[in-house]
Amino acid sequence: MQQDKNDIENKLRQLENQQLPDLSQMDGHWQAMNQMLAPGAAVSKPAGNFLKVSRKFLLFAASVTAIIIFILVYQNKVADKEKQTKEAVVIESNASPEKKTEGTTALTDTLEKPAGNKRKLTPDPVYADVNMDRYFKQGDSATVAEGNGDSADFFVDGNDKPASAQVVKTTLNNFYEQIQKQAQEFIMNADKGGIIKCSEGTAFIIPPVAFADENNNNITGEVKVVIVEYYKYSDMIAANLTTMSDGKQLITGGMVRITVESKGRPVKLRSDKFIDIKMPTKNFDAAMQLFESATGTNKVRTGYTMDTLAGSNEFTSARYRNINWQLNSLQSSIPMPVFDGTTNFLDMGDAPYVVRYGRKTVGKFTIPSNSALTVDEAKKILTEKYGYSYDKIKVKKSGKRQTRNNEEIWDNMQVGDSMRLTLDQAIRWHYIDRKDSAFYAAKIRNDSINFYKKYYARFILGDSLVLKRKLFNQAEYAFEPRTAVLLNQDSINKYYELYLRTQQAYSFRIQNLGWINCDRFSNYQDKSDFIINLPAGVNGQDFVSQLAFINIRSVMGGKTYENKIGFANVPVNMPVYLVGLGEKDGKVVSFIEKLKTGQKEVDVTNFEETTAEAFKNKLAVLDLQ
Amino acid sequence: MSINTAILIKGCKQNDVLCQEQLYKLFYPDMIKVCYRYANDMDGAGMIYNNAMLKVFKGIDNYKDEGKLAGWIKTIVVNCCIDFCKSKNIFNNATNIISETVVTILPDVFDRLSGKDIQQLIAQLPKATGTVFNLYIYEGFTHKQIGGQLGISEGTSKWHVSEAKKILKLKLENIPETELKTNAAG
Are A36 and B165 within 8 A, CB to CB? Predict the structure, then answer.
């Protein structure tokens, strides 16, 4: 058998060697290669008509370069003139105190209304004495990162911008695209729901029939769940994410983005459904809360999720990403009880509650009153499935479910979204399979059971917190047997803390897809503003800059003005990494510096030309802290 | 290494365009075949080869392992082919498949085929399957290496190869006799 296999493979190789190559296009390909070897030429990209596109591109590149050179020369001339005029003003102001006052007034005007080339020629401002508010209240071109993320806002006065600004946009956009973290994609059956566990530990528990399209029609069949996890500094900075909410600093426990597509179209979470999410942590902090993207939420709610929809600029490029995180007021900071190992599954396998025999056999089914499916949808599914057994199928919705001791009684005769199974059962009965990421589910179940075996805490009975024990395994009890009875407040607090320490994940319930951030507000009181001075001639708008704190997990975004980058309300005496990425002389440059906050201004000159790979390697250092 | 190749390398290190052209054309016949296997059209193959040769010319200063120039260039070309396939995202939705079925094709069948016939049949395979098949059969990668390069499991790689053989077998059985060896010279 092995011999046959080798023979076949050898035969294939022989045939391949015998085949003569197609040399008809060798000269054409060499011409393209020759152009690529020319200085400044780009690497070839796939295209239908390769040679034509390359030539056109080169012509275009040559004309753009010529324009840039012309503008740079022109700018230099203007700058020289400005310098001469400035010197003249300084000399004049020294000579006359009245004119000096006039100069100061003009300075204020300049800061508040920068107007490109048309601005007044005044002395350069002394930033050490300038109120930082001026930086952060610039509504126009001064606040690149503060805009709503739309590139149109960045280039609001685009007509006055040199052509090089457009080049910067493209170069940095491309660079950001190269360093983006790859999304994880899961295929699942929307009818059944399922559990997804991602590579860095985030778990999503998705109920059956949870998604709807923009017209609120239920989504059935396969859907693609796309998830990106941001727990490391390197990932956050590469995605240009910061942890700020209305200008206030947040400390994060991690960020996640979840989007769902059906047949290539984005879908939304149904208004009556929710997804349970668990975000892993090694240091549980009970103060963590759920934050969502203020700008993204509405888009998600209307069914137009990010990235997939043309025109939603704020999501198409990380370069312009600037999420203002908003607290989800519906979420309490108290973590939910642990996942109990069971979940709802859509069941279409149950028998009808009655079968009428006669000239025609009629199967009558009931579905729960709150089923995600309509009667018609359920009827369609049942007809497809059991059409061969019954001449006619009738479906009706049952009355409200009965409850006993606040626990729902599940009617075995119901079909459709009526089953509550353990994960083992669900897997065994093929309600979920490997494709639904079910193999992760078993792990969650085991984790959950192990947790139960150690500690068990549940929040019930109105105002008071009662800790209960679960009798799984006496040997593994951490609590003394007495504690199962009534506890005083101190004991409750003690055991609650003990319970929290055992938590290795934050649990939230989300009602929208999109950006999710697990954060708490920073409570540092001693703060000051912090300015980065870039070298003269470098435009701050060409840079994206962030402060990554070493002792706490928090990232602040910088705001730019001329050749400066400002950070407002920065906690002092904190070790931080200052990370900058930008464009200088047509090349992507970066700087990473370890600093201590509290200084008013810092000069940064050590730009290094960088590649995507080199920058990622540099960022990896931040994860080691 | 022949004297001619040594001269070409020296010239390329000095950015001599004539030497670059000679080197480019020297390896073109062999390498364009490799590129064609993954691109399935001459435009794509040319693009892959050009990107690979750009890397060669940029990195030729670091080339010291004399005598193995062809191997070095082929490694770069194959890596560019893999990058090309990755850029097409053909392995993004791949699921882990571990079962491998043994497919037997009688070697006699190949006597009726030309290299071009086989190439056409391989080009009709699903993209991911064709890529794995090419890497395994023609580039001599092991399943472990393929898995590492493409981010798939070893089992999945084996499955792709066996699936490719299965499809090829079906196609070979259904090709009319008259269509075979249409262009035996390539």
Answer: no
